[in-house]
Amino acid sequence: MTASGSIAIIGAGPAGLIAAEHLSAAGHGVDIFEKMPTPGRKFLMAGRGGLNLTHSEALPAFLGRYRGASDWLGPVIVKHDPAALRAWCEGLGQASFVGSSGRVFPEAMKASPLLRAWRARLEAQGVRFRLRHDWTGWTRGGALTFDTPEGPVEHAADATILALGGASWPRLGSDGGWADRLKAKGVNLVPFSASNCGVEIAWSKVTRTRFAGAPLKTIALGLGEERVTGEAMIARYGLEGGAVYALSGPVRDALANGPVTLFLDLKPNQSAGALAARLARAKKGQSLANTLRKAGLAPQAVSILRDAVAGLPRDPAPLAETIKAVPLTVTAQRGLERAISSAGGIARSAVGEDFMLKALPGVFAAGEMLDWDAPTGGYLLQASFATGVAAAKGVEAWLAG
Hints:
Elements: E1 2-10, H1 14-25, E2 30-34, H2 41-46, E3 54-55, H3 59-64, H4 70-79, H5 82-91, E4 96-98, E5 103-106, H6 112-124, E6 128-131, E7 134-138, E8 144-148, E9 151-162, H7 179-184, E10 189-195, E11 199-200, H8 205-210, E12 215-223, E13 226-235, E14 238-240, H9 242-245, H10 248-255, E15 260-265, H11 272-279, H12 288-294, H13 299-308, H14 316-323, E16 326-330, E17 332-333, E18 341-346, E19 363-365, H15 379-399
Helix pairs in contact: 1-6, 1-15, 4-15, 11-14
């Protein structure tokens, strides 16, 4: 079966949906192809614990979160910035607020009300959803090909936006299966790697069994010149959580040369001197466990401290220094199947300023298909939305000649 339409968007995640909204609002005919039974599967998963849309920090610091990609992503995000994303959300009847951490959430917290309102707007603008359409490539004549429950389908389009996501959480649809198809067409790719994922640390049996799932609140993690303050959680395999995820890139790079030592500050809001003074107030004969407890360390923090340092010092000053720089040996990062996002994908050199693939005229790419990396905290969604809008504008300019 063959159909025809002006613009095809493959992938019904945030990047694809926002591109469809922009193009359909401008009067273009748009078909969205999605291999899953419903759109926005990963978007809904992101909202299970509260949909973190973006972040409220000052734009220079915000753009710095994209590290090596900030030089080319920065101008794109400036054109569709956090304020624009919040205005868009509120335009769908979903007011937003800034949390205590600076993160921005819709007041409903969940993704489902926003996604329902968004889909209704898209359908009202004439966007056609082609669900259970698994993209398989192109015909020799350039038509898109799909596998569907009813059999193979071909679709001719004047322009195409690829927004198939990266390679993390493959069961939600973004499995990176598109990479071989693009590589065969001469598109330069960077190998996928896990990002925003936990790290593996060999805990003792006590820490592993008694404290798996226990939080480490208000801590800091350091690696070289990098230092991140936040929270983490003990897992049976090691450590996960926001502070860990923020160091995904540096940890990944360092692991290429073998195990990595992270330094954990269990009391980042206290100086070593102030902590030593507090420890010095311990009564004579008091056990080390009680001394640490009275200094404000939770049992799980004490267990990690004992795991990391054999023969903890009793003198207040060296003990305080140890508490503020607990060495944790990281042997690996967790895999793509449980990572929140992925690095790698379409190389920056393979994409023009308009987000069109240099090897494939009329084919554009957006979202996590592109090789950029960012921590959780709203940065992932912000860049997905911004690149989706940029690709849509690229399509308009290309169609206009």
